Amino acid sequence: MSSPIQAVIFDWAGTIVDFGSFAPTTIFVEAFKQGFEFEISLAEARVPMGLGKWEHIQAVGESPSVAKRWNRQFGQPMNKRDVDKIYAAFMPLQMAKVVEYAKPIPHAIQVVNQLKEQGIKIGSCSGYPRQVMDILIPAAQRYGYSPDCIVATDDLPQGGRPAPYMALKNVIELEVTNVGACIKVDDALPGLEEGKNAGMWTVGVLLSGNEAGLTEEAFLNADQATLHIARHQATCKLSQANPHYLIDTIYDFPNIVKEIETRILAGERP
Q: Is position 11 annotated as part of the catalytic site?
């Protein structure tokens, strides 16, 4: 059956691959340490997730807890040269490690293939720069994941999230005729804002993503109380973008697709 939905644009880490979005966050911690012998926590590294990686480093440095310690250690605020140095340390570390986190989130491949069978095009965009994506893409392909379009955060001169440009680049490349027939799926606030700014339906991913910060093993073994706390934490953050739907993992997405199809056929727009 054909669908009134023309395309779904997925984020990568925490949404389709890398349960818990650990590839970028652990590397940010290491890059700060390698660049300046400066310690940040995994929780601090997670806060601006979804931005381009240079902007992510800058945002970490501007966060109150990190800025206070940075000033105390170096006697001045972090500047652009400092960000450049940390980014230079980040890139080779990320390129070396990203393949280790290319495993798809459970059910992701089945869900994507089901969408393709319905004639829905699969787009994607990421906060990763192209150099990292060029390594991640073939690794994901070996697991069976091959979206129809892939846009990296530095592919466009206008910049990345929360601006809509990466999502709209997918629209152009996929030859979509109506942004209101597209869904953006993401586990981070800037990615959901990107989808909203592009005029798309938006679906936030709670428990496999950055905000919950659970490993796949921790998720599978967690009791309901633990999942409730993680779900609440992620909901509080992602709800700031006022997404149309929130789901635990990609496993829950097909039911949302059916709801959005019904709403589109009834004449609703995002």
A: yes
